[in-house]
Specification:
The protein is of the alpha/beta class. It has 2 domains: 9-175 and 372-388, Glycogen Phosphorylase B (Rossmann fold), CATH 3.40.50.2000; 188-370, Glycogen Phosphorylase B (Rossmann fold). Helices cover 40% and strands 16% of the residues.
Length: 390
């Protein structure tokens, strides 16, 4: 075993461009880990963008945290991918450990393995999700997961990898800043802006228009609920970013359908919204009845953030999402592709105050225990120490 040196160990975070806006979970996680590591233990390099001002508050008194302005733009396009590979193939890496925080691909994994084959630099991968195809070819999967330690973000993925013989796997849930996400009263200015009244029961969906295939089920559930006069105080906020032409077309389709059904006045459209904590606290219920999670992280942070604000969730019965409900302890499950069941679960929480309050309180405690970024960073520190001084 190496003797522990008084010199600070150098860690390079290998990520997408670390730059606002914070709309991508892996770069958020890298930034949060770096900002919450114990001071005076490590020298941290984050990869940022040239000629882009970095307005987010970094510990100004922490000289051990550095933004290396590497990329040419905020997007991980082909040019930036080549720049990233070139950075890895420098003669001197200037790192004792590299932390990779992006979804692995066969080619990039091969390039990384080739570069580090004879290097003393240790590696860790945080894998936020794996596609179904990955599990079908175990030999290929083992090549993709190249690091000394693999960190996964859900128990479901941990169980799958362990079952097929992938070793050196550790579960560390993604963390959030509990000083930022916490319960507050509904913001009156935001309510006025979004035309929401005190008597309204507000549903929030923070997914996507096309990829997750949830919008149609949500709309049908809204239609079912509105057949009862008592449910006409429902408001639905669709906080969905437009990521493609398909998303834009789907949004227009949704608007047309709502107008034809005379439900348009009950829906609020928010393509982007920076102060999400206000939105979570304005809402009464966060719904996520997705049919699939292909390409999405195992644990959607928007659900965790709203739970930190004492908001119950309703999610579909996908394995990764089941983990967040604790068998109806923190939230409710709804059947996949079943608007009627979704409507029933929404109505249940709308009308049963005791159940609502119990789930809200439990969800808050659950996030506090398992998704506190400060606690979870301590787990990463243990991994770093184990690898560096192995």
């Amino acid at each position: 075993m190496k003797k522990q040196s008084k010199l600070k160990n150098r860690i390079l975070f290998y990520t997408r461009p670390i730059v606002p806006p914070w709309d991508e979970a892996s770069k958020n996680l890298a930034f949060d880990i770096a900002n919450n590591l114990s001071k005076n233990k490590f020298k941290i390099n984050l990869l940022g963008v040239k000629k882009v001002s970095f307005n987010e508050k970094i510990h100004r008194n922490n000289s051990d945290l550095r933004i290396e302005r590497l990329y040419k733009s905020p997007d991980l396009n082909l040019i930036n991918k080549l720049i990233l590979i070139k950075r890895l193939y420098r003669l001197r890496l200037r790192a004792d450990l590299i932390h990779f925080l992006f979804t692995p691909r066969p080619l990039t994994s091969w390039l990384i393995r080739t570069r580090l084959r004879f290097s003393k630099t240790r590696t860790i991968q945080t894998v936020a999700t794996l596609n179904k195809k990955n599990y079908q070819n175990i030999k290929k999967l083992k090549k993709i997961l190249f690091s000394d330690i693999i960190v996964v973000q859900s128990k479901n993925t941990l169980d799958k990898l362990t079952k097929i013989g992938i070793k050196k796997v550790k579960l560390i849930y993604p963390g959030i800043n509990l000083k930022k996400y916490f319960p507050t009263p509904k913001d009156s200015a935001l309510m006025k802006k979004l035309k929401i009244k005190n008597k309204d029961f507000v549903l929030l969906y923070t997914g996507e228009y096309t990829r997750l295939k949830a919008i149609d089920d949500i709309l049908q559930a809204l239609k079912i609920l509105n057949q009862d006069q008592k449910n006409q105080n429902l408001k639905l906020i669709l906080a969905c970013r437009i990521k493609s032409k398909k998303d834009a077309a789907k949004k227009q389709e949704v608007i047309t359908w709502l107008k034809n059904q005379k439900l348009y006045s009950q829906v609020v459209f928010l393509d982007t919204f920076e102060e999400m904590v206000k939105l979570y606290n304005l809402s009464d219920l966060n719904i996520f009845p997705v049919r699939e999670m292909t390409g999405k992280f195992d644990i959607p942070l928007t659900l965790i953030e709203s739970m930190a604000c004492k908001k119950p969730i309703i999610v579909s019965k996908l394995k990764n999402l089941k983990e967040l409900t604790g068998k109806n302890k923190y939230g409710l499950l709804c059947k996949i592709k079943n608007p009627k069941d979704l409507a029933q679960k929404i109505e249940l929480l709308k009308n049963d105050n005791k159940l609502y309050d119990r789930l809200a309180s439990n969800s808050f405690s659950f996030v506090k225990d398992y998704f506190n970024i400060k606690k979870n960073v301590k787990e990463y520190e243990k991994v770093y120490q184990k690898l560096i001084f192995k």
